[in-house]
Design brief:
By secondary structure, the protein is an alpha+beta fold. The protein has two helices and two strands. The radius of gyration is 11 Å and the shape is globular. The relative contact order is 0.18.
Length: 51
């Protein structure tokens, strides 16, 4: 796993949110991304955008 520099975290969170995907911090340095109500096709596209 590659650790993200702290200075890049705000932009990362904004970009994930812009995909329409929920994002929550769960402790220092860890995030959970997901939305149970997103259709499969949309979730695949969001995963590709985040990567």
């Amino acid at each position: 796993m590659k650790r993200m520099p702290e200075k890049d975290i705000p932009a990362f969170v904004q970009e994930v949110a812009a995909t329409g995907c929920d994002i929550c911090a769960v402790g220092p340095g860890y995030y959970v991304m997901g939305d149970a109500n997103v259709p499969r096709a949309a979730s695949v596209g969001a995963v590709q955008e985040v990567r």
